[in-house]
Amino acid sequence: MEQPLLSNPNPSTTTDSPTAESAPPTTLAGLAFVFILAAMSLWANLEASEGFDITILNAAPPGTLAARRFDLLFVSNGKASQILQNASEFVERILYPNELYPRKPVRSVTLRLAGHNLSEVVTVGHGDDSQRPGDFVIVVSPTAMADPNPGLALGSAVQRAMARVWLWDGQGAAPKWLMDAMVEYLSLSAGLVGDAVPLRPGGPCWGEEEEPVGTARFLKYCEERRSGFIARLNRAMRKHWSEIMVDVALGSSSQWLCSAYQSRIRQRGELSGSRSVLGLSQAM
Q1: Residue 81 host element (H or E)
Q2: Residue 107 and residue 54: Cα distance in Å, rounded?
Q3: Which residue stretches belong to region Disordered (predicted)?
Q4: What spatial distance separates the first Cα and last Cα of the chain, rounded to whole Å?
Q5: Residue pair 138/60 in contact by the 8 Å Cβ criterion
Q6: What residues have CB less than 8 Å from 92, skipping those under 6 apart?
Q7: Distance in angstroms (rounded) separating the CA atoms of residues 79 and 146
Q8: Which has the closest alpha carbon to 283: 154, 188, 185?
Q9: Under a CB-based contact definition with an 8 Å cutoff, are residues 275 and 194 in contact?
Q10: Domains contained in the chain, number
């Protein structure tokens, strides 16, 4: 008859390797905490990158040229949503190159053709539900539909609007001139070149007195000299604003780069730019 299995009577004998040691509880807790933080950060960025809800609305009076064009050229074929998605992806690639750049929460974007002409071609606002941060409304003036190239006009408007949507603004503290210039920089990067105003000899490269397009050209120069500058500056403006952020993002003095930029302009005789075709328009 088989004997029943019995436990080892010798309490000093273990099945563990004599060299194995358990990690101290404090070390395990610390590693777990770091892992959780990393996982939460990665999850937040993945969630933000999954996309956002898109709504297209036509508020122009029925039967008008603007209403008919918008419906025929951009709504019926899904082109409006495509333009918005393409513009968004382009801006995101520049502002959020990897997971080290916390993404601005964007839950939904509504693109609406206004019912009347606006003082500006496009405006950006927040949704009606203040309890849901991340809802944005892009309103385009019907004058865009009267343009000889309505696809280019709408694409240009949406490109600028999505730049506004994705840019951090230091909790509203960042200066308007800087935000306008960063929007123009992103538009320049997309292929839209506006008429640039020459910098005043010896004057600043940016500020309230400078035209946004002129400042955007200086931002482009800074990006060329310090790759990733725009993304770093945008990241720095996530929670607050300080002028020192510019030099920190550059890794050097913005005043020194301004002098170098003005010297290059004088040498090359660069004065003003001319309009060119928005690169994205080929897909419209």
Answers
A1: helix 79-95
A2: 9
A3: 1-23
A4: 87
A5: no
A6: 49, 103, 166
A7: 17
A8: 154
A9: yes
A10: 2
89-95: average pLDDT: 97
What average pLDDT does this structure show over 97-122? Answer: 96
Boundary-marking domain end, from 120, 146, 166? 166
**For residues 99 and 195, which has the higher predicted lDDT (pLDDT)?**
99
Which domain covers residue 69, as residue numbers?
Answer: 46-166
pLDDT tens digits for range 203-215? 688 888 888 888 9
115 and 90 assigned to the same domain: yes
pLDDT at 52 over 90: yes
* Residue 187 dihedral angles phi and psi, to the nearest 5°: -70, -40
Q: And the tokens for 77?
A: 């074929």
What is the reported pLDDT for 5?
39
**Residue 227 tokens, joined:** 């790759």
Q: What is the CA radius of gyration of the chain?
A: 27
Q: Is the pLDDT confidence value at 247 over 90?
A: yes
DSSP for 126-184 reads: E-S-TTSTTEEEEEE-GGGGGSSSHHHHHHHHHHHHHHHHH---TTTTS-HHHHHHHHH
- Mean pLDDT for all residues in the chain: 81
Mean pLDDT of 103-118: 96
Token look-up 């603004």 returns: 169
Whether 97 contacts 85, CB under 8 Å: no
Are the CB atoms for 158 and 152 separated by under 8 Å? no
DSSP secondary structure string for all residues of 225-264? HSTTHHHHHHHHTTT---THHHHHHHTS-HHHHHHHHHHH
